[in-house]
Sequence to fold (285 residues):
Amino acid sequence: MNVTVAKSAGFCFGVRRAVDLVYEQTHIPGALYTYGPIIHNEEVVDDLEKKGVKVIQSADELDSLERGRVIIRSHGVGKDVQTQLEQAGFEVLDATCPFVKKIHRIVEEHSVAGDHIIIIGNPTHPEVQGICGWCDPEHTTVIETIQDAENFRLSEKKNLCIVSQTTYNNKKFKNLVEIIQNKGYYIAVCILNTICNATAERQAQTRELAKESDAMIVIGGSHSSNTQKLFEICKDECKNTYYIQTLEDLDPTELRGLGNVGITAGASTPNNIIEEVQKYVRNEL
Fold:
């Protein structure tokens, strides 16, 4: 069996930066929290919990917590949340991915200028919710699907600013933007493809690998948006595609007798999990 791992598989720059910061802080005495899971990977979050890192799920919990350090997760948070943390007396360490931080600045600037903000992405994803927190909610629309784009309406023509969730599917982003442009509900439109380079590269490499493989293994957390996008891409190109979080989720009977097996992983998947899966497939099957 020939086993190939995508070159871009595993932690991206923003995720590694956030995870490293939390692990560094575990060596310093005092209460330590992350606002939301630092990344969408259960293995990493569980390991940090064993080291004393607690996860804050919402600002409603702040009054009942011992004061200490709070690390803002890589997905970022809205402006109001950041202010609440600071005013509640916590030391705030910002691990927001720099590429996400850039989107915050863009939408805030355009929102102040009176533009209508369109965010292409998943409305329930914490990154998108954080981006929304830097815009005027009355003049912000999140569009995830073709139906959302077709249903988009404005009562009056305005300047539009279109951005994307950093981990969104590049092909889908372009398709949705085209639908919005054709509707003509704008005076001028500023289109900023804010899908990060690492995501675009990862998706492109994954698509090419899937075309050449008899089976694809996609490794990542169950809540990882970018891993789910990789799974969708692989399924389009390779019918034998399997989504796993760890080696325990892999059914070896599905891969026996195959010639070429490709492995890719989301941006929040640790290298040790990727290596464990690769070693098993290569040596045991």
User: Anything to note?
Assistant: The chain has a mean pLDDT of 95.
